[in-house]
Amino acid sequence: MEEDDWNDINRIVKELMNKFFSEFIKDFEEFLASIENGSGSERFFGLRIEVGPDGNPRIYRIGGEEFEKESPRVVVVDEGGESGKQLIDIYDDGSAIEVVAEVPVVSEKNVGVVALDDSHILIDVVDPGSGARYRREVELPAKIDPKTIKTLYRNGVLKVKAVKKSVVESGNVKE
């Protein structure tokens, strides 16, 4: 190749990279602006892959409604109306317990949370379209006051927060 050919290739690659990064930065700034003004939604998507007892791979979708509109490149296994084992994280900030759970994407009115006692909650989600039901009992790392449970649900992510019983009893509840 001639030196002019290499210069042309170098110029083309630089132009493509500049275009890619300028589009990326523009999209990212729009995303950040939508979060700041409250019009954006939480976005979470992923896949969990495992090999079943029959030796066949199974791929489970994890994520929000906006991603389900696109056709996946893989076949997603759906067992009994729930996409595998949903993810659950539990946080203890000292005064409260917060549970963040990935649940099926349905209307907010079809999502319920009930305190079974002061150390267990039940997450209950019903998909009226398919009739599928997702129920999960969660053992909490500390006792809570069931009257303080607050929930937030958006795009298949459920957040449940409750004040610890010891904090309520001590009178140190912060609003």
TrEMBL record:
Similarity annotation: Belongs to the small heat shock protein (HSP20) family.
Superkingdom in the source lineage: Archaea
Name of a matching Pfam family: HSP20
Protein name: Hsp20/alpha crystallin family protein
Organism listed in the record: Ignisphaera cupida
Stretches assigned to the SHSP domain: 78-175
InterPro entries on file: A-crystallin/Hsp20_dom, HSP20-like_chaperone
Gene3D superfamilies: 2.60.40.790
